[in-house]
Amino acid sequence: MIFVLYSVLFRLVLIPRALAAFGMGAALLQSTAVAINLFGQRINFLLIMPLGLSHLALAAWLMARGFEERQQPASISPEPVPPTAT
């Protein structure tokens, strides 16, 4: 799921592509680190660390830059009807 998150961010260019590419690579490293355990090896936590750094960088980027605000289109409201005299 994290790989898909960073690939969508890479595709939509919401963050710098280098940061999104680093996140995708870090997600693959984490998957490798967890899969190694299935073959009887110990988990290497150095392979998990880049994903944490990627999350921290993503959070820092979004807090510092945020998203662009999009202009709301002006709503077309009907002309007010003057009251009729009775």
Descriptive account of the structure:
The chain has one domain. The chain contains three helices and no strands. With 86 residues, the chain is mainly α. The radius of gyration is 24 Å and the shape is rod-shaped. It has helices at 2-12, 17-36, 49-64. The termini are far apart. Helix 1 packs antiparallel against helix 2 (17-36). It is 55% helix and 0% strand.
Provide a brief overview of the structure:
The chain is an all-alpha fold and 86 residues long.
How would the blueprint of this fold be written?
Elements lengths: L1 H11 L4 H20 L12 H16 L22
Helix pairs in contact: 1-2, 2-3
Tally the beta strands: 0
C-alpha-based Rg, rounded: 24 Å
> How far is the first residue's CA from the last residue's CA?
67 Å
Percentage of β-strand residues:
under 5%
Q: Kindly give the count of domains.
A: 1
Order of helices and strands: HHH
Uncertain residue ranges? none
Determine the mean pLDDT.
86
By DSSP (H or I, 4+ residues per run), the number of helices equals: 3
What is the SS-derived class?
mainly alpha
Helix content: 40-55%
Could you give a short account of the major beta sheet?
A: none
What general form does the structure show?
A: rod-shaped
